[in-house]
Amino acid sequence: SIQRILKYPPTRTLSGDERQLLWKFRFSLMSEKKALTKFLRCVEWSDVQ
């Protein structure tokens, strides 16, 4: 669940499923402070366009 993921320490590596879940609900997580570090880990930063 998203709440479980948000309780993870900022250094924990997220699984592919966890990353997809956070990405799917990214707009509803905008007001959740704890979601920022997790969300930033979901972004594929090497995919430059």
Number of helical regions = 3
Q: What is the CA-based Rg, rounded? A: 10 Å
Q: Any idea how many domains?
A: 1
Mean of residue pLDDT?
Answer: 87
| Strand residue content | under 5%
* Quaternary structure classification: single chain
Largest sheet: none
N-end to C-end Cα span: 31 Å
The SS-based structural class is mainly alpha
Q: What percentage of residues falls in helices of 4 or more residues? A: 40-55%
Record field, number of beta strands: 0
pLDDT below 50 for ≥5 consecutive residues: which ranges? none
Gross morphology: globular
Would you list the SSEs in sequence order as H and E? Answer: HHH
Organism: Nymphaea colorata (pocket water lily)
Pfam family, one: PI3Ka
Domain PIK helical: 1-49
InterPro entries: ARM-type_fold (IPR016024), PI3K_accessory_dom (IPR001263), PI3K_accessory_sf (IPR042236)
In summary, what is this structure?
Helices cover 45% and strands 0% of the residues. It has helices spanning 2-6, 16-24, 35-42. Residues 1-49 form the PIK helical domain.
Tell me what the structure shows.
This is PIK helical domain-containing protein. The protein has helices spanning 2-6, 16-24, 35-42. The chain is mainly α and 49 residues long. The protein has one domain (2-42). Helix 2 crosses helix 3 (35-42). The chain is globular and about 30 Å long. The chain starts with a helix and ends in a 7-residue tail after the last helix. The mean pLDDT is 87.
